[in-house]
Design goal:
Structural class: alpha+beta
Largest sheet: 6 strands, antiparallel
Order of helices and strands: EHEEEHEEHHHEEEEHHHHHH
CATH architecture of the largest domain: Alpha-Beta Complex
Helix content: 25-40%
Number of domains: 2
CATH class of the largest domain: Alpha Beta
Number of strands: 10
Strand content: 5-15%
Length: about 350
Amino acid sequence: MFEQFIGVKPVEERHRFDAGRLAQFLRGKIDDWRGELAVEQFKGGQSNPTYRITAGAQRYALRRKPPGKLLPSAHAVEREYKVTKALHGVGFPVARPYLLCEDESVIGTAFYLMDCVEGRVLWDQALPGMTRAERAAVWDELNRVIAQLHGVDYRAVGLEDFGKPGDYVARQVSRWSKQYLASEMQKIEAMDNLIAWLPKNVPAGDETSVVHGDYRLDNAIFHPVEPRILAVLDWELSTLGHPLADLSYHCMSWHIQPGKFRGIAGLDHEALGIPTERQYIDLYCRRTGRAGIDASTWDYYMAYNLFRMAAILQGIAKRVLDGTAASTHAAEAGSRAPMLAELGWAQVEKILKRAA
């Protein structure tokens, strides 16, 4: 099911660039750079095309903006480079970044170069083929790393200008409402309902931390044999934001059926060794020193994230139409927007029922 996302492939025609020009640019900028340059494209990734660059015995990863017409503020590889550089400096597990190039004459769009981290990318969140203890260890490590991220002092690592502290959720609802409407191709009643309800009902209590924005199992590279994350990938949506918005995005899996979109809802979590959503939240709270999370507050953040994901997938669907989507599997992903919007509105209905 997930083989289509694993490994590398020859570079797609629309994403090709002059490898000789890249080699000329990099020569002298990276220590130990030697040998002929070879370029392959990673199969995974919907948004920013990512390549494996081989030079002699060294392997690197290059991530670039896609060519073509882009939505405003999307595909911000410059921001990805900035946050990974800051986090790498304090020992957070990310690929070591080497350089950022904003000169579009080199390969046609802005890009950055980083280490190519060798390890396991685990795509199926049910973790088939593992023992109960192995699954528990993987999920515990995911929990540990997101708690570590939210504990980073963003001011101390030079990220105080990486976003606007405060009012994160209200600003995000506004942003994704605009992005959705800019990409709208059909009326989705649940999305219209969420766009109207979410901004009027933001929970009280504001916090700010570095947030990943797309933290999930397959955006992490695990050690080849240990349940240890070597690098968290894909920082395009990272910013300064509310940690509960980030955590609840990561926890959407418990609300989505298997096969629908990285879902584990309805599985026998106890038998598998996977924590329940409540156990996972409680573990995060212990690691971060948080007293707990109110049920309606959690339902709001879950509704917000399902709405946000639906808006992102609608954007992918629109890029398929425009011919700028980075993955041949993007059309399938884009088709899931209505399902996620309906799940989001179902979370709101739980809040409304509780308040009645």
